[in-house]
Amino acid sequence: MSDLRELYQEVILDHHKRPRNFGPLQEANRHAEGRNPLCGDHLSVQVDVEGGIIKDVAFEGAGCAISRASASLMTDAVKGKPVEEAERMFEEFHQMVTSGVEVAVEESLGKLAVFCGVREFPSRVKCASLAWHTLHAALEEKSGTASTE
Ligand code: ZN
């Protein structure tokens, strides 16, 4: 288990240092802001949805290593996927970081499983799930700011 944890830690640090899909998205037709006042994380997620598919997705903003790494891994995970599938991943991710997770969920989330350890740190759960709440708000076309509070 400790080897696995080290690996997870490495993945998180790597995505924090070199976030994927970071920057403005020219073609975006959905957008939402997300804030986690508890930690000070602030993200904006931009999505280009065409024909029910997430054609492209990017994020900007500043936050702690966990919130940045989670946004980076999330954009990688949902790019090219149907909106419905991204919403299902949001549900599964949320389930994984807030409660005990079944192995099946962990497997279906792939790399996102690196965040399964945060459920032991309740204050970090919001950092890890901020990007997902923000994506969810963008896909629902809710205006305003998503907040973890
Ligand atoms: Zn944070």
Describe the 3D structure.
The protein is an alpha+beta fold and 149 residues long. It has a single domain, classed as Sufe protein. Chain: A, CATH 3.90.1010. 47% of the residues lie in helices and 20% in strands. It contains five helices and four strands, in the order αβββααααβ. The protein has helices at residues 2-17, 65-78, 83-98, 103-108, 122-139, and strands at residues 30-36, 41-50, 53-62, 145-147. It has a four-stranded mixed beta sheet, with helices on one face. The termini are far apart. 41% of the residues are buried. The mean pLDDT is 89. It binds zinc ion. Zinc ion binds next to helix 2.
Contiguous low-pLDDT stretches (5 residues minimum) are: none
Query: Regarding quaternary structure, how should these chains be classified?
Result: single chain
Helix fraction, binned, reads 40-55%
Taken in chain order, the helices and strands follow as HEEEHHHHE
Rg for CA atoms: 14 Å
Largest sheet: 4 strands, mixed
β-strand percent reads 15-25%
* CATH architectural arrangement: Alpha-Beta Complex
Q: What count of structural domains?
A: 1
The ligands bound in this entry are: zinc ion
What spatial form do the alpha-carbon principal axes imply? globular
